[in-house]
Structure formats: structure tokens, C-alpha cells
Design brief:
The protein has about 140 residues and is α+β, with helices and mostly antiparallel strands. It has a single domain (about 20-140), classed as Hypothetical protein apc22750. Chain B (Translation Initiation Factor IF3), CATH 3.30.110. Helices cover about 35% and strands about 35% of the residues. It is built from four helices and six strands. It has helices at about 5-15, 30, 35-40, 75-100, and strands spanning about 20-25, 45-50, 55-70, 105-110, 120-125, 130-140. Strands 1, 2, 3, 4, 5 and 6 form a six-stranded mixed sheet that branches. A hairpin with a 3-residue loop joins β5 (about 120-125) and β6 (about 130-140). It is globular, with a radius of gyration of 18 Å. It starts with a helix and ends with a strand. It comes from Chromobacterium sphagni.
């Protein structure tokens, strides 16, 4: 019993220090090609990363941030991150429809409120138990 309290204290202190936060770059195209994305994203809203060519933007309709997490247990970092990013896209699709937008443009990674622009990938952070992606984008009407 003498050792129980010091051992518990050591575990509580060391736990956060051993927390894993692996940065994973996931191509947007990998997420959009997931069978689950084909089921959950209906195609009425298109997604464009910052720096990616977009159709003519007729009107911007505000911006938003989506920060989604997913269970990472028994999943590879890439698999968990694809799920987290898909969750953010689903959230953006729902909000875009409410605003009568047909696109989300200028999408950037927004981890801890720091923008990271990439015309191909989205940043995700994978831990031992949870993976998460924070994304910022603008709603728009594109096309004719």
C-alpha cells in the first residue's frame, strides 16, 4: 500500500507526457473516393482546397470551421484521419445546403487555429485513442 499513492501519481503525471499526436497529411481525393463518402456526400456541394482551381465564384456566403474527432482504436492513423476528415466534410455539406451554397472553397487545415494551406492534402492529428481534423472553409455559389 505504501507504493500505491506514489505509483498513481507517477501514472497521472506521465500519462499526458506520453500522449501521441502524430500529424498525418491526407489527400482530399482519398477521402472523396471512400465508399462512405459516396454514400454520405450527395454531390450537391463541391469541395475545393485553398490553391486548387475552382469554377468561377459568383458569391461568397461566409466561412466556418469544423473540428471533428473519431475513434482511432484499432485503426491505422490514415484510416482514422480519413474518417475524421469525412466528418468535417459532412458537416460543411449540411451547413452549405442551409446557406444555399453549392461549394466550400479555400479549405485550409485549422489545427489550434493555425492555418495550413495545401492544394492537395488536409492535416489530421492522430493519437492513441482519437484522431481529429479541424478545417476552415468558405461557402460559395460557383458556376453559371
Amino acid at each position: 500500500m505504501k507504493f500505491a499513492a506514489p505509483l498513481l501519481t507517477l501514472i497521472l503525471i506521465a500519462g499526458p507526457a506520453m500522449a501521441r499526436d502524430t500529424v498525418v497529411q491526407i489527400p482530399l481525393s482519398d477521402v472523396l473516393s471512400m465508399p462512405e463518402a459516396q454514400q454520405k456526400l450527395d454531390g450537391s456541394v463541391k469541395f475545393y482546397l485553398a490553391g486548387q482551381h475552382t469554377p468561377a465564384i459568383r458569391k461568397k456566403m461566409g466561412s466556418d470551421v469544423s473540428n471533428q474527432k473519431t475513434n482511432a482504436v484499432n485503426k491505422s492513423d490514415e484510416q482514422a484521419c480519413r474518417w475524421a476528415i469525412l466528418s468535417t466534410l459532412i458537416s460543411f455539406q449540411e451547413s452549405a445546403k442551409k446557406r444555399h451554397a453549392n461549394a466550400v472553397v479555400d479549405i485550409v487545415s485549422y489545427y489550434k487555429k493555425e492555418e495550413r494551406r495545401d492544394s492537395q492534402t488536409i492535416e489530421c492529428h492522430a493519437g492513441t485513442m482519437i484522431a481529429g481534423a479541424a478545417i476552415k472553409g468558405s461557402y460559395a455559389k460557383v458556376g453559371r
